[in-house]
Write a structure and sequence with these properties.
Length: 151
């Protein structure tokens, strides 16, 4: 049991260090990145439920869960994170702080739209507060795109 305790500390420290380096590449582990990752997870899970339980997916011909469609969904999520990484590096390169934020907000809106679509396919009503929040985020993203990060 003592050996487990002696190994546990360095393993946790190593995982923390790797996580810190990865978060640094993405511009820090801030509320925007956490929100995007949560939205991505919720979208993926609701997509699996739509296909696996309700058999109502628009991603397969039968509407049922397909391993290829699920894998493609994971690949798309990975590509989104790569675009966020590129946006962060662009911010660093040109000395700004808005490209990454605009990209993250745009992808958050996209993920929310997909979540709302999945909920609709399951017959779950969407509260008006969520649809209003999506509109606000859309406008904020468009404003940042047009004004170079200045509202």
């Amino acid at each position: 049991m003592e050996n487990m305790i002696t190994v546990k500390g360095p393993v946790i420290a190593g995982i923390g260090a790797v996580g810190g380096v990865i978060a640094g590449f993405f511009g820090g582990w801030d509320a925007a990145l956490i929100t995007l990752i949560i939205f991505m997870g919720v979208d993926y899970i609701t997509g699996l439920i739509v296909a696996g339980v309700f058999k109502n997916s628009t991603k397969t011909d039968s509407g049922a869960l397909g391993s290829n469609a699920a894998f493609m969904g994971l690949l798309r999520k990975g590509m989104v994170l790569l675009v966020v990484l590129v946006a962060c590096r662009l911010d660093i390169m040109i000395g700004t702080n808005f490209v990454r934020d605009a990209v993250v907000i745009a992808y958050c809106v996209n993920e929310m739209l997909s979540i709302v679509e999945n909920m609709g396919l399951m017959g779950v009503p969407i509260p008006e507060a969520i649809t209003k929040a999506i509109e606000i985020l859309k406008k904020k993203s468009e404003t940042e795109d047009k004004n170079g990060g200045k509202e």
